[in-house]
Amino acid sequence: RTRRMPGRSGRVSRVESSTLGLEHARRASTVWFGNESNPPKGSAPGWTNENWLKSRFHFSFAEYNTHKNADYGVLRVMNDDLVQPGRGFGTHGHANMEIVTYIVEGSLTHKDSMGTSESLGRGSIQFMTAGTGVRHSEHNLDKSNPLRFIQMWITPNAGGLAPNYGSHETSPDERKNRWCRLVGPVPGAGANAGTAPVQINQDAGISVAEIDAGQTLPLSVPTGRQAYLLCVEGSATDGAGGESLERHDAAELKAGTELSLTAGSEGAHLLVVEMAERAGSGRKDL
Question: Which residues contact 69 (CB under 8 A, 6 or more apart)?
Fold first, then answer.
């Protein structure tokens, strides 16, 4: 379940991938969001899963319903979604949430009621301030390759905001062996406000890194902050504690945490969401 991953401060809790979601991976009905029936097993090119959608829920969501794992600070949702070729989420609505999506593999095509229409690939980030209400769709239009993305919902610092959309693309070099800051607060909303490529209405930020095998990258959580670390791909080992994060594992990082993360033989693709510290944050169901 959760195990201590000491780091230098002893303030890290590892969340193994086997503890995510209600049944670890959701098998959504094909009629949800207007999708066609799943093709017979082995008959469709590029399909890596029998069902059109496979999701891992880091926090209470949909049929994984538990008040003991409802959020981590202002991070309300983190869903790791794998969408098969030619499938997706038809038009649906959101309100009063900052929705941020990081594309891991494939191409995500987004359309919304604000008139936005674009496709984004690996290493890209998009956001929506749902505010007073917005409707959008998300699809994998590629007929031969799956789409994987990490979608995060962050509680905004105010309700009733004007809807907004934005995106940012990064290059492999920007993510290679260093933290690439993607998301931060709008001016006046928190630490290092107004400086990130994508800006949201909350004192929170998101960074990613792709670390080559054997290379090491430090990660520190300052006083008054906390963070949620996801191993997106590969694996990483903390040099102080000796424990590892494997693909799909996560870790809750408390204020004062200092890690020295060394990538495994396949490298490590990491994503971290940092935010203002909130007393009582963390899983209570394990």
Answer: 59, 60, 283, 284, 285
